[in-house]
Write the C-alpha cells for this entry.
Amino acid sequence: MIEVFRPSMGQEEIDAVAEVLRSGWIGLGPKTAQFESEFSRYVGTDHAIGVNSATAALDLAMKLLHIGHGDEVIVPTMTFVSTAHAVAYNLAAPIFADCDAQTLNLDLEDVARKITPRTKAIIAVHYGGRPVDIEALRRIAGDIPVVEDAAHACGSSYRGRRCGSLGEIGVFSFQAVKNLAMGDGGCLTTDDPEWSARARKLRWLGIDKGTWDRTSLDRSYWWQYSVEEIGLKCHMNDIMASIGLVQLARLETMNARRRALAERYFAGLTDLDAIGLPVRDDDVFRSSWHIFHIKTQQRNELSMHLREHGINTGVHYTPIHTYRCYGNCPSLPTAERMADVILTLPLFPDMGDADADRIIDAIRSFFGRS
Ligand SMILES: Cc1ncc(COP(=O)(O)O)c(C=O)c1O
C-alpha cells in the first residue's frame, strides 16, 4: 500500500536521539535552544520558541495578542480544526472565511467582508504549503495582526521570504507527517522580543526561568523563580529537538524531492480534462508541497479505485465550520463545493518515481486513458 504521507527518518535521526538519551538531559534544554536558534535563522525571524505542537503555538499566539471573550478572529474554514480551536480556547469567536477555488487558501474578498470592529486577528493558513498572497491580505487587514498558520508551509516562500516570517506571528507543526517531523512538536516565530520573552514563559507554566537555565547558569539562589502569569505546559523537549535538528539540515533536500514528485504528477496528469491540478509555483509563490491535491467530480469513485490498486488517498479538509462544535455557522459555498471534489494524492520524500508513475497510471486507467 502506498500511504498518503510518510515521515523520512534515517540513521542520523536515530543517532541523534541516542546521543540525547545518553546525555542525561532529555527535557527542555540545550538541544531545544540550538533548534530554536537554527530554525529562526532558517525562517528569517529574530525569535523561535519551541513548543509541543502547532495547536499549542496557535494558542500562545492568541494569548500574545490578548485575544479573549468578545473578540473575533477570522480563520479559514479549509483547514484542520486546531486553527479555530485555538481561538475558542481563548473564549473568542472564530469567524470562518471561505476559500479560493484554485488555491484553497483564504478567499480574501470574503475576509474583507468579515472584518468588524471586533476583529482582533486574522489567521492565514498556507494550504498545502502554497503561500497566501500576504501583500494582498495585508492591504485588506490594515493594522489587524496576521498570524500565519504555517503548519504545512515549512520551507515555503513568498517573494523570496520564508513563510513564518510574513505575519506578526508564525506557527509551525513538526507533527509526525509534516515536512519537518519530530513525532510531535511545533514552533512560534516572531521578530518581537517582548512576545518572544512572554511566549517562553507561557509555554512553561508562566515560570520565568527554564530548568536548564536554573541548572546551568552560574548564579546564586538558582532555585528561585517567579510566576507572574498562569501559563501552559507545552514546551519542546531535547528528544524532539534532536530529531528536529537533523530534519532541519535535511529539509531543503526533502522539499526538493517533494517538488520533483509534484512535477512528475503535473507532467503525468496535465492532459486529463476530468481533473483539476493545484496551482504551480512561480517566482512569487513557492510551495513546500506538503499536500498535492487534485479535484474531480468523481472523487469518491476514484479514491476507491486507487485503494483497490494499493494506493491510499486523503481529503483535506471537510470545511471545519460544518462541525457541530462550532454551532450553526452560515454556509460557505466554495469550501462546501470543494469538499466534495478534492483528493490528496500520496506525496512524501522517500516516495519513488516508480510509485508516482504507478499512481499516475492508476488515475489514467480510471479515466480510460493510457
Ligand atoms: C493547518 C494546520 N494547523 C494546525 C495543525 C496542528 O498541528 P499540530 O498537530 O502540531 O498541533 C495542523 C495539523 O495537521 C494543520 O494541518
Notes: The chain has two domains: 11-248, 251-366.
